[in-house]
């Protein structure tokens, strides 16, 4: 079989040349288009369903949220298994699909089943899907620091400015905020005053909700002009909450400040984020979308950062806490260094021991074409260029070198023997 292939290649040199050109073009295209990352993605093909019901203990979460959702999610095609975890105020369900299931097809199927399962949940509870990323999608971390700014102000800047700017970057699935305090209006109700004034607690809750909205009115015409009527009622300061009417007592309006204390505070925290032992930090995590090129996503994020940094308040600085592009570049440089070193060593060995430059070029060409074919196969089978796959190519170069040297040396020896035999026969004649 090998002899037939060699014989065909010798008699069809033009076709072989076309094949080499096609391999070169396909290999270069595959190198440019294959997603590049530092570490291989070994995570399972999963869809995360997150449901929040604050203030409820894990047993209630398990009985009223996790169990109904798990039972209704069963039966979706290509599901391998379903895992769930119930904790205080939150429910997590991990739907694991078969490896050949397309991720966005899987998310659509889960979303369809969640729409049906909605009626089995308590009123006002809506399950949501997690980001379309993987376990290694955290490609970029950053922090915000500023003298004269407290943790609440930095967290508000992250949630309402930086996060929205980075979420629009192509390839970014989510920007998760961490650290600091999330501002909120806190209403501390005095139960004794509620009993004294005879105001039910549910009326207080409904009054706060109903007084935090804008409403639309009709069209008012005057002097051939039409005026749109609307009521402005969004809460902007704690004083707006204090003046909300929650009922009457002997024909006297009762305002919320009469039965409760209103203040601006931070949401309950279960942990803190610290950077380099220098104190608490506020920042975000950029989560890459499934199947994206990590290096390209990070470069686009850095470009967007330079654009919106001009809009940061004076004194606020942007710090990069983790950037995977450095590890990715090191992986690529390792392969490049191993490639040219092995090509150089092979060339020196072949030329030094065989004293034949063309034999060295044959071995070098076999190495380059083998690497290009490897990248083509990686592109076809969806294997990313990571530290493991690139390291495998670097190690495989050594295996490619050995047969190249052996074949070149064997061909050179055979040709030399034939030339010597021919010269000997010519001398005898």
H and E order: HHEHEEHEEHEEHHEEHEEHEEHEHHH
Based on helices, strands and strand pairing, what is the structural class?
A: alpha+beta
Please indicate the percent range of residues in DSSP E strands (runs of 2 or more).
15-25%
Count of runs of 4 or more consecutive helical residues = 13
How large is the radius of gyration? 34 Å
Task: Provide the CATH architecture of the largest domain.
Answer: Up-down Bundle
Number of domains: 4
Task: Explain what the structure shows.
The protein is of the alpha+beta class and 429 residues long. It has 4 domains: 2-38 and 328-428, Multidrug efflux transporter AcrB transmembrane fold; 44-133, Multidrug efflux transporter AcrB pore domain (Alpha-Beta Plaits), CATH 3.30.70.1430; 134-182 and 272-323, 2-Layer Sandwich (Alpha-Beta Plaits), CATH 3.30.70.1320; 186-266, 2-Layer Sandwich (Multidrug efflux transporter AcrB TolC docking domain, DN and DC subdomains). Helix content is 50%, strand content 22%. It contains 13 helices and 14 strands. α2 crosses α12 (357-380) and α11 runs antiparallel to α12. The radius of gyration is 34 Å and the shape is elongated.
């Amino acid at each position: 079989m090998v002899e037939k292939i060699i014989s065909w290649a010798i008699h069809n040199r033009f076709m072989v040349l076309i094949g080499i050109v096609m391999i070169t073009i396909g290999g270069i295209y595959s190198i440019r288009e294959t997603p590049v990352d530092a570490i291989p993605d070994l995570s399972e093909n999963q869809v995360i369903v997150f449901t929040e019901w604050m203030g409820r203990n894990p047993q209630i979460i398990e009985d009223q949220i996790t169990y109904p959702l798990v039972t209704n999610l069963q039966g979706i095609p290509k599901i391998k298994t379903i895992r769930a975890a119930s904790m205080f105020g939150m429910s997590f369900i991990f739907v694991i699909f078969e490896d050949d299931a397309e991720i966005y097809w899987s998310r659509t199927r889960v979303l369809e089943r969640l729409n049906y399962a909605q009626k089995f949940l308590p009123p006002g509870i809506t399950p949501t899907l997690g980001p379309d990323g993987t376990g290694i999608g955290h490609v970029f971390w950053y922090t915000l620091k500023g003298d004269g700014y407290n943790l609440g102000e930095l967290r508000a800047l992250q949630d309402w400015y930086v996060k929205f700017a980075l979420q629009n970057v192509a390839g970014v699935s989510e920007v998760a905020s961490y650290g600091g305090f999330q501002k909120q209006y806190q209403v501390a109700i005095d139960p004794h005053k509620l009993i004294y004034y005879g105001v039910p607690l549910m009326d207080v809750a409904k009054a706060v909700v109903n007084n935090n909205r804008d409403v639309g009115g009709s069209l008012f015409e005057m002097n051939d002009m039409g005026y749109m009527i609307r009521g402005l009622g969004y809460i902007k300061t704690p004083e707006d909450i204090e003046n909300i009417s929650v009922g009457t007592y002997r024909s006297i309006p009762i305002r919320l400040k009469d039965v409760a204390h209103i203040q601006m505070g931070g949401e309950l925290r279960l942990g803190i984020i610290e950077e380099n032992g220098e104190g608490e930090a506020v920042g975000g995590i950029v989560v890459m979308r499934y199947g994206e090129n990590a290096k390209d996503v990070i470069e686009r994020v850095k470009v967007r950062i330079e654009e919106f940094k001009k809009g940061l308040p004076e004194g606020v600085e942007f710090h990069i806490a983790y950037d995977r592009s450095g590890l990715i570049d090191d992986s690529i440089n390792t392969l490049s260094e191993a490639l040219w070193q092995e090509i150089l060593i092979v060339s020196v060995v072949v030329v030094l021991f065989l004293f034949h430059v063309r034999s060295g070029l044959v071995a070098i060409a076999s190495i380059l074409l083998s690497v290009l074919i490897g990248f083509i196969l990686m592109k076809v089978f969806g294997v990313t260029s990571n530290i493991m796959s690139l390291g495998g190519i670097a190690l495989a170069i050594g295996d490619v070198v050995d047969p190249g040297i052996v074949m070149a040396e064997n061909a050179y020896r055979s040709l030399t023997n034939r030339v010597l035999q021919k010269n000997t026969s010519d001398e005898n004649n």
